[in-house]
Design brief:
The protein is mainly β. Helices cover 3% and strands 47% of the residues. It contains one helix and twelve strands; from the N terminus they run ββαββββββββββ.
Length: 201
């Protein structure tokens, strides 16, 4: 099964297709590398886009993965407005919890590397007015998030992130949480960035 994806890394965005059995999220959690086929590469440093073809990305290097075929949207959930920073990107969207979820008493911790968001807007942290991507669903690598703001304490979803709780429009900053547990954004000017490793045939 082939799925269109946009794979966001710290250096740029690979736009192409991924062939995988089943759902994309399950495929990500079961592999260390993601092959993006027939890809276009858009650096975020202002240099010209490229068409490297098939590129191999390390799953740990993925910050955000956008696709219309995520396949695991919760049917009965409460959704919480959230915005977070991951590398050069700012992500705004909604994250789901089960009804009655109490972060102060929650024993279960999220499993897997990626967290699902809906109604997502992606911009550049350094220049949020330069351009944006809007998408219905995205997966965010929870281990690469630097900052998070939400209406309830969701810090344990994102180990190491600086957490702020929004209360009626106000924001209360918290210490870093140390848990145990489409048009693409416009680019800033910098030295050219090379695309990821081209997959060998």
């Amino acid at each position: 099964m082939s799925m269109r994806v946009e794979a966001y890394t710290a250096a740029g965005i690979a736009m192409g297709s991924v062939s995988a059995p089943g759902h994309l999220r399950e495929h990500l959690e079961g592999t260390r590398e993601l092959l993006v086929e027939g890809s276009d590469w858009l650096p975020i440093d202002g240099s010209a886009g490229q068409r490297p073809g098939d590129v191999q990305l390390q799953v740990d290097d993925l910050l955000i993965l956008v696709s219309d075929d995520l396949g695991d949207v919760p049917g009965h959930a409460q959704w919480h407005a959230i915005d977070l920073d991951s590398g050069p990107y700012r992500i705004e969207g909604e994250l789901s919890t089960m009804p009655g979820f109490d972060p102060g008493r929650a024993l279960a911790r999220p499993s897997g590397e990626f967290v699902h968001l809906r109604d997502v807007r992606i911009t550049l942290v350094s220049d949020p007015d330069a351009g944006e991507t809007r998408c219905a669903h995205a997966l965010v690598n929870r281990y690469t998030v630097d900052r998070i703001a939400a209406d309830i304490m969701l810090g344990f979803f994102f180990p190491g992130a600086k957490m702020s709780v929004t209360l009626g429009g106000a924001t209360t900053s918290g210490a870093a949480i140390q848990s145990s547990a489409s048009s693409a954004p416009a680019a800033s000017s910098a030295a050219p960035v090379q695309p990821p490793e081209t997959a060998s045939t």
